[in-house]
Amino acid sequence: MRADGPNDPSPGQRLAAWSVHLLTASGAVLGVLALWEVGRGDYAQASIWMLTAMAIDAVDGTLARRARVSEVVPGIDGRRLDDIVDFLNFAIVPVVFLLAGGFIHWSVAALPALASSYGFAQVDAKTEDDFFLGFPSYWNVLAIYLWLFDIDPVKSSAWVVGLSILVFVPLKYIYPSKLRRFRAPMVVGGTLWVWVLAFVIWFPEPAARWRVAEASLVYPAAYIGLSAWLGEWWKARAT
Hints:
With 239 residues, the protein is mainly alpha-helical. The chain is built from eleven helices and two strands, in the order H-H-H-H-H-E-H-H-E-H-H-H-H.
């Protein structure tokens, strides 16, 4: 048996790297559970699984960089794994959620799936300066809010059409965990936002009384506002 060289990763480093890959891959299991709950008509539990998958996606990249997974486990492409899991959880699961629940008209259901297929396949889907290019397929966020606010299918379908178009518009959207400015407040705010939405789902009556769902929109609004500012949406992108 070959002895480890001086620069070979230690067993602890290998365990850490594989643990991060397992964390990322667990998002696919959460996607399956969310689809299962959709099939059972339990949109509240499906939303919880979607939120949990979002929470994992928010931290696994940072953990992967700290564990140096690309160096320690070079045979596994962490970015490809992340994209596969994200496509399931950010595109397929929420589209099925919206369609099965009757929240959108069936005629527009193909749009987010097709647009996200293009979005994920773009070579410059993530820019060199750490932005997403085009609407980053946050269909899970849209799905949860359309369900929470009980938006009628016509208006919900309009949202789907509009955001599907924005996938193809080369505007920059921030990547919170890779922000060079405002990283800490956006990460902390995102964590708080997930817990606030979980509260709304778990305790709908007090949340409705206190209008917690409406208050939670502050974070998505901040995300859009910061994207517009740091991504300089007012400047025409050179083609």
